[in-house]
Amino acid sequence: MNKILILVVEDDRPVRNLIVTTLKTHDYKYLTAENGTTAIMEASSHQPDIILLDLGLPDMEGVDVIKKIRTWSNVPIIVISARNEDTDKIEALDAGADDYITKPFSVEELLARIRVTIRRLAMLGMGEMQDTSVFENGDLKIDYTAGCTYLKEEELHLTPIEYKLLCLLARNVGKVLTHTYITQQIWGSSSENDIASLRVFMATLRRKLEPDKNGTAYIQTHIGIGYRMLKV
């Protein structure tokens, strides 16, 4: 049995059964909750490793569940919702969700997102993201102490803003970061001008990280929402 414990928060029985069957088939341990109140209680008492959360719950909004859990826990939260507007995704991600899957979804997609989250948990557990001075991802290496970045052992010449962006993405590898979150972290504000500047800096950073169009992609764009560094 997989040691990862997943809390499934879903009031729609057929969807809940699909998720539970998928988890059971792949040997994940799981708990279920049909409303926000139960979800918060289960998260508090059992401390799951991952939460799969629907937004449209009968007693409260899923975003409020995220905000409540975030007052005491950084457990990864993957939203699974029929709401596909960018504003809904941004609200959930800004509240503290780590990822967002839109219904209807495939079992393969769900399992892939869970695997990405587990890899991120493993990296956190080993301290690679916070406690060491060097970050490595594929051919990319960041030496935090020296403030230098290397691609295939060749030093990249990044501007201060590009370097800050890269470090922010690296410390949250596998997690979708919204435009608002990134601009707040980089510039301390989140105006339209800041977001426009972010797009420009991100484009130049990607050209340096991904000089070969058919090469490794390190940064994934979520149009209208934000960016994610991929674990390669």
From TrEMBL:
4-aspartylphosphate PTM positions: 54
DNA-binding region location: 132-231
OmpR/PhoB-type domain: residues covered: 132-231
CDD domains documented for this protein: REC_OmpR_KdpE-like, trans_reg_C
Principal subcellular localisation of the protein: cytoplasm
Pfam families xref list: Response_reg, Trans_reg_C
Gene Ontology BP terms: positive regulation of DNA-templated transcription
Subcellular location: Cytoplasm
GO cellular component, one term: protein-DNA complex
Described function: May play the central regulatory role in sporulation. It may be an element of the effector pathway responsible for the activation of sporulation genes in response to nutritional stress. Spo0A may act in concert with spo0H (a sigma factor) to control the expression of some genes that are critical to the sporulation process.
Protein name as catalogued: Stage 0 sporulation protein A homolog
Species of provenance: Hominiventricola filiformis
